């Protein structure tokens, strides 16, 4: 059995090698490049493909994969928004993801960034860099005084809720699908409007679908409490960035922590040292003292990366051996 794994970063190599040592009947080939029409040519003769990239998977590359008779694609991440569902279905590809590599990694990061916003650490750091050690005017807010609206109560949302409750925050939650434990705690509200009415902080933990794109748009911001804090560690396009900029300008939004951006693939996980950045929205947002931009790093922990590699390889091997696997993704 032969698996080809694309986009393997240096920090993933040892996890791939460990897995391969434990599966001596499988030949695993490591490719550093991401999947595209050219690199996919290397997959000829393999039984399955493992991949992880934020860039769109090109239809033509998927087509080539299918032409080589490869039906199994195992992603090392959770989001499948960069795969064209109709192409996947047309080719009859079986796709797996890793839905729970470490919800805590993302949840801990989301809460860390929220605390950074509430305690205004970016502003204090900027002042301290100029040897200005005065307290005022950066008086802070306490997490235990906040009402946090958690949108999305899957594994990550649930973990966020636990952490927030540990700090004494009041949590309310919204999701189309109710989780029994969250339900039992009576945290769900019925509408997004109730989140907007009550929350002083809103944190997003839902996938990107056509119907969730720009979930937070100008009308949504308008409906929120003045000075609300926004946390997005999910997907950039959940927020209309122009609308966010206007809401920051008008102080409707008091601060935002963004680990994801609408056009992040232009920048994130790339080195732009000394280079000009052509992404005005990024420049606008990251220049603000009450906005924290990070390069989609919430997931990036030792636990998560190991699980992403091992579980995706397990999934791919299971597909090859049995035609099915845990974590099979259904495309509608
Ligand atoms: C995911 O697992 O889908 C993530 O958000 C991680 C990522 C860097 C794409």
Automatic annotation (TrEMBL):
Protein known as: D-lactate dehydrogenase
Similarity comment: family membership: Belongs to the D-isomer specific 2-hydroxyacid dehydrogenase family.
Residue ranges constituting the D-isomer specific 2-hydroxyacid dehydrogenase catalytic domain according to the UniProt record: 8-329
UniProt KW keywords: NAD, Oxidoreductase
Keyword set includes Transmembrane: no
Residue span, D-isomer specific 2-hydroxyacid dehydrogenase NAD-binding domain: 113-298
InterPro entries recorded: D-isomer_2_OHA_DH_cat_dom (IPR006139), D-isomer_DH_CS (IPR029753), D-isomer_DH_CS1 (IPR029752), D-isomer_DH_NAD-bd (IPR006140), D-LDH-like (IPR058205), NAD(P)-bd_dom_sf (IPR036291)
PANTHER family, A to Z: 2-HYDROXYACID DEHYDROGENASE HOMOLOG 1-RELATED
Gene Ontology MF terms in the entry: D-lactate dehydrogenase (NAD+) activity; NAD binding
The organism of origin for this protein: Paucilactobacillus oligofermentans DSM 15707 = LMG 22743
Pfam family, one: 2-Hacid_dh_C
